[in-house]
From TrEMBL, chain A:
<dbReference type="InterPro" id="IPR020845">
    <property type="entry name" value="AMP-binding_CS"/>
</dbReference>
<dbReference type="InterPro" id="IPR050237">
    <property type="entry name" value="ATP-dep_AMP-bd_enzyme"/>
</dbReference>
<dbReference type="GO" id="GO:0004467">
    <property type="term" value="F:long-chain fatty acid-CoA ligase activity"/>
</dbReference>
<dbReference type="InterPro" id="IPR045851">
    <property type="entry name" value="AMP-bd_C_sf"/>
</dbReference>
<dbReference type="InterPro" id="IPR025110">
    <property type="entry name" value="AMP-bd_C"/>
</dbReference>
<dbReference type="Pfam" id="PF13193">
    <property type="entry name" value="AMP-binding_C"/>
</dbReference>
<dbReference type="InterPro" id="IPR000873">
    <property type="entry name" value="AMP-dep_synth/lig_dom"/>
</dbReference>
<protein>
    <recommendedName>
        <fullName>Long-chain-fatty-acid--CoA ligase</fullName>
        <ecNumber>6.2.1.3</ecNumber>
    </recommendedName>
</protein>
<keyword id="KW-0436">Ligase</keyword>
Automatic annotation (TrEMBL), chain B:
<protein>
    <submittedName>
        <fullName>Acyl carrier protein</fullName>
    </submittedName>
</protein>
<dbReference type="Pfam" id="PF00550">
    <property type="entry name" value="PP-binding"/>
</dbReference>
<feature type="domain" description="Carrier">
    <location>
        <begin position="11"/>
        <end position="55"/>
    </location>
</feature>
<dbReference type="InterPro" id="IPR036736">
    <property type="entry name" value="ACP-like_sf"/>
</dbReference>
<dbReference type="InterPro" id="IPR009081">
    <property type="entry name" value="PP-bd_ACP"/>
</dbReference>
């Protein structure tokens, strides 16, 4: 029996309602002709790194090369030459596709240019489409990147076919070269949506204005992205129908702040990771997720093992590439997410990353648990809890706090926030020192910058 | 505020926050009998680092832990902020 012909991104766009991918600089139409990647035919069956400067170029290369190249290695734009070189070696990359001829990829590889205008290309020269492997680096920030292998099918697994409703107009604060952004890109490809993306040089002001004139209906980002938007006066210009959070813990404070700012919107937080794929969505606007998900959640099975969330589903990555010493799946096919979860009654709550644990006099503390309590104060916009070396207890908890209104930043406010921490947390988790700061750094990934030891 | 006063008022703040009953703060008071536990001292050292700009425990090559309140205050007074 013949296998079904592989579904490629291009075939998907052709058969579906199409995509309109818009940046301030230009747009990509889903049914655009081939020919943005120069000499693409020579990339058939090759391992190709998408090393584009702009998201538009990356999107063009993805549409053009899926089904043609054997491997698509998708690296985020802030990857250093050293990390790019490591990814190139691990994935046996033969050619780099880029719109930036000056870019340093750490090791010399031929560059296939991604151009603005498309060249005419002889489509008959293209062989039958392959099942391209999509390789994405995990979001860990230290050491050599780990590349996980997905297929278009595993990436599309969580995305439902479009209904009869009018196609949404999406905007995302994510970069499409990270798992969270790639999901939105693919979602838009399937549903025939318009997708608005901000390139690095576009300011939040400009992006908000563009979103307003395009009448954006669906917006996605991390809780840190959303806090940043809520601190911006332009937030009032957006009227989303659908708000999606992922990539970090969505605590009660951010969920209720969004509810207040956007009374008409559906607010959904999703659990996903590069390794585990899209796990589940939480639609009841409460933090954590219903414990009933542990009994089964569509195609996804959830387990708590040693306090960590494990997932098994057709959407998980298959394996790490170039790292035979690392196993992505356990014997029984589960991915350990390293996200620590606590079940309280009929609800499960995220406590934080396993690697983010700080040690206070021998007691383990998740910074996120403390941030959740601080963020619940209505004067607080966002906070970051970390450890400071201490000669007595090894480490001590310290907190940086951004207030909604800097005028509240007095000793009285500090005392009251710490008082509510004392009422709700064990004493070793109450910040020893709290500072009010004007802003907290958010990484290019949209997550809080944390200094993991 | 003098270094001594900074230290004693922080001790009183922390004792109040942590609901600890403390002994009268004179120089001969043994730290182990002060009523503060090690977490209280960890907080004290962290706050004094912010207020006085120095952590004499980490700044010093030789690890010297005071036993009385007088010695504790002296440790900070010997290091100009």
């Amino acid at each position: 029996m013949n296998a079904a012909p592989p579904e490629t991104l291009r075939a998907l766009l052709r058969s579906g309602p199409g995509l309109r991918f818009e940046t301030a600089a230009g747009s990509l139409l889903g049914d655009a002709p081939r020919g943005h990647v120069r000499g693409a035919a020579a990339l058939a069956g090759r391992s190709v790194l998408i090393g584009a400067r702009s998201q538009l170029a990356a999107a063009r290369a993805l549409v053009e090369l899926d089904g043609l190249a054997a491997r698509l290695v998708i690296c985020p734009p802030d990857f250093t030459a050293e990390r790019l070189a490591s990814a190139i070696e691990q994935a046996n990359v033969e050619v780099v596709a880029s719109d930036d001829p000056q870019k340093d990829f750490g090791v010399p590889r031929p560059v296939a240019e991604i151009a603005d205008c498309s060249a005419r290309q002889d489509e008959s020269a293209c062989s039958a489409p392959l099942h391209s492997q999509w390789l994405l680096p995990t979001s860990g920030t230290t050491g050599a990147p780990k590349l996980v292998a997905h297929s278009l099918a595993s990436l599309l697994g969580a995305i439902k076919a479009p209904g009869d409703a009018r196609p949404p107009v999406w905007a995302t604060f994510y970069d499409i070269r990270r798992y969270g952004g790639l999901q939105i890109f693919l979602r838009a490809c399937v549903s025939g949506a318009v997708l608005l993306i901000a390139e690095a040089e576009e300011t939040l002001d400009e992006f908000i204005l563009r979103c307003r004139s395009a009448r954006v209906t669906h917006v996605s980002g991390t809780p840190s992205h959303w806090r940043k938007l809520l601190m911006h006066p332009g937030r009032k210009l957006l009227e989303p129908e659908y708000i999606r959070l992922s990539g970090e813990i969505a605590d009660r404070a951010i969920l209720s702040a969004l509810r207040e700012a956007y009374p008409g919107a559906r607010i959904v937080h999703a659990y996903a990771s590069t390794e585990a794929g899209v796990g589940f969505e939480v639609t009841d606007e409460m933090e954590g997720f219903p414990a009933s998900f542990l009994d089964g959640c569509g195609e996804v099975e959830l387990r708590l093992r040693d306090g960590s969330l494990h997932l098994r589903s057709p959407r998980t990555a298959a394996r790490y590439v170039g790292r035979d010493d690392l196993k992505l799946l356990s014997e029984d096919g589960f991915v350990d997410t390293d996200d620590m979860v606590e079940r309280i009654g009929d609800r499960c709550f995220f406590k934080g990353r396993r690697a983010g644990v700080i040690n206070i006099g021998g007691l383990k503390v998740h910074p996120e648990e403390i941030e959740r309590v601080i963020n619940a104060d209505e004067r607080v916009r966002m906070s970051r809890v970390g450890a400071r070396r201490n000669p007595i207890s090894g480490n001590i908890v310290v907190a940086d706090v951004v207030l909604k209104d800097a005028a509240d930043g007095d000793e009285e406010t500090k005392r009251e926030i710490l008082e509510s921490c004392r009422a709700q947390l064990p004493r070793h988790m109450v910040p020893a020192v709290m500072r009010f700061v004007p802003h907290i750094e958010v990484l290019a990934s949209g997550k809080l910058a944390r200094n993991h030891a | 505020m003098s270094i001594r006063l900074t230290i004693t008022s922080q001790i009183q703040n922390i004792a109040a926050e942590q609901h600890k009953k403390i002994a009268p703060l004179d120089d001969k008071l043994l730290l182990s009998e002060s009523g503060l536990d090690s977490l209280c001292f960890a907080i004290l050292v962290a706050r004094l680092e912010d207020e006085l700009g120095v952590d004499p425990f980490t700044a010093s090559e030789e690890v010297y832990f005071p036993t009385t309140l007088g010695e504790f205050i002296e440790l900070y007074e010997r290091r100009p902020a």
